[in-house]
Each structure stands twice: as structure tokens, then as C-alpha cells.
């Protein structure tokens, strides 16, 4: 999971949402009306479609799930579930792109909150996930740094084997790409350098590279990162290309 920047809604889309919200607010059974409105054919065409396109543009890699970063994002997820707060059904700030596994199989209507009512799940468009989650790239495993981080790992099963193994492979790909980038710079081959950057940017599990870049400047970096890539990860030119 990495930090993402939420884009503004185009006016023609933004204007379609308030009437739908007012319809829900006025209903005696808000959850039922919200579900029906969300599934309406016209809404799928005029609201879902443009929202989905915007979320795909915001997503890491090529339209990847904003939670696991591995599978393709197929669903518009309500960060605060519709069943909990139907009034936010058409709230753009409540929409994220998720894969079916993270959305329908794992998260579903789960939404843990702290004692003060604040969410215990990380919203990557609101905060930096690395404030709550520590990833060891070579092992592909997350550790929660906060209650929010631990709850996020648990709800989305972020250490399930398919993800940890995928992150290990992503780590190997990043290391090879970094070495190719350095070799290209030594030969003055800008096309090779660009190809290496595109390889890293386009692959799934973008959190691996981002974790490596952040760990490279943290105390004790030499204990968790290979000495052969540590100087590359600290290179200002490369960091400018890759660091989000």
C-alpha cells in the first residue's frame, strides 16, 4: 500500500452526486435506498464509469488495487461501508479502487474503529501508509507500527502467501532494474535508464520499491537492504524518478 493523490472530480460528474445523496438522506430506510441507487443502471453508466476511470488513473502501476497493490482493481470500494454510513455512498472521498479479493472477500462490511470513532483502516489517499506499516522488501512481509497498521494488515490479510511471495519477486525485479539503470548511466544510454524506470513503475506491488527508497535513508538501512543497491537507492537522480 502506498500514498496516492486523489484527483478532483470533473464538474459534470460532481454535479450528479448531490441529488443522489439527497435521495438517500430523505429515505426512511437509507441503506436499502442507497444500495438500490448504487445499482441503478443509469448510475452505473453516468456515475460508476467516470468514477472508475478516475480511480484507475490514481491507482498504482496499471490499475492495481489500492489496498494490496497486486491484483487489478475491479471494484469501486466504499472505504466507509455503505451499510455503516449510506449517506457516503456517493461521496467521492469515500471511493477507492479495490480488487475483488480485498473488497468482496476480505473487507466486505468490516470497518474497525478506535475508541474515539476514528477509522482503524489506512486510507492511502488521506495518509501515508508507511506511517503505519513497515515492509521488509526481501521478505515481502508487513509489520504494523500502529493500531491502524495492525488492523489494516488483519482486515486485508496483507501477509497472505500470494502477496509475500509476490513482493519477494518484486524485490528481485527492482534490484535488477536498478542495476540496469546504473549500467545505462555509466554508458550514457538514456534509453536503458528510462526502460529501467518504466519497469519499476509499471510492475505490481509498487509498495516494494517505495519501501526500499524510504528504508535507504533510514537508520540501520544497511541491515535490511543489500549493500550493492543501497548507494543506488540513495542516488538523488533515481529518487527523483521513482519516489512518490
UniProtKB/TrEMBL annotation:
Pfam family, one: HNH
Family annotation (InterPro entries): HNH (IPR002711), HNH_nuc (IPR003615)
Name of the protein described by the UniProt record: HNH endonuclease
Keywords: Endonuclease, Hydrolase, Nuclease
Highest rank taxon of the organism: Bacteria
HNH nuclease domain residues: 50-104
Keyword Nuclease: yes
GO molecular function, one term: endonuclease activity
Amino acid at each position: 500500500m502506498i500514498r496516492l493523490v486523489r484527483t478532483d472530480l470533473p464538474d459534470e460528474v460532481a454535479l450528479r452526486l448531490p441529488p443522489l445523496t439527497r435521495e438517500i438522506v430523505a429515505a426512511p430506510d437509507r441503506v436499502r435506498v442507497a444500495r438500490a441507487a448504487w445499482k441503478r443502471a443509469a448510475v452505473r453508466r453516468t456515475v460508476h464509469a467516470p468514477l472508475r476511470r478516475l480511480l484507475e488513473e490514481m491507482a498504482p502501476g496499471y490499475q492495481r488495487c489500492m489496498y494490496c497493490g497486486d491484483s487489478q482493481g475491479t471494484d469501486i470500494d466504499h472505504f466507509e461501508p455503505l451499510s455503516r454510513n449510506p449517506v457516503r455512498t456517493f461521496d467521492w472521498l469515500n471511493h477507492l479502487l479495490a480488487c475483488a479479493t480485498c473488497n468482496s472477500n476480505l473487507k466486505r462490511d468490516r470497518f474497525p474503529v478506535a475508541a474515539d470513532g476514528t477509522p482503524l483502516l489506512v486510507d492511502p489517499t488521506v495518509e501515508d501508509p508507511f506511517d503505519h506499516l513497515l515492509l521488509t522488501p526481501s521478505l515481502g512481509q508487513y509489520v504494523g507500527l500502529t493500531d491502524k497498521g495492525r488492523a489494516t494488515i488483519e482486515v486485508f490479510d496483507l501477509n497472505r502467501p500470494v502477496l509475500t511471495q509476490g513482493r519477494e519477486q518484486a524485490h528481485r525485479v527492482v534490484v535488477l532494474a536498478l542495476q540496469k539503470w546504473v549500467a545505462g548511466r555509466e554508458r550514457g544510454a538514456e534509453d536503458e535508464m528510462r526502460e529501467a524506470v518504466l519497469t519499476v513503475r509499471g510492475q505490481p506491488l509498487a509498495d516494494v520499491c517505495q519501501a526500499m527508497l524510504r528504508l535507504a535513508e533510514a537508520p540501520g538501512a544497511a541491515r535490511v537492504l543489500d549493500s550493492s543497491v543501497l548507494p543506488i537507492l540513495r542516488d538523488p537522480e533515481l529518487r527523483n524518478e521513482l519516489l512518490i
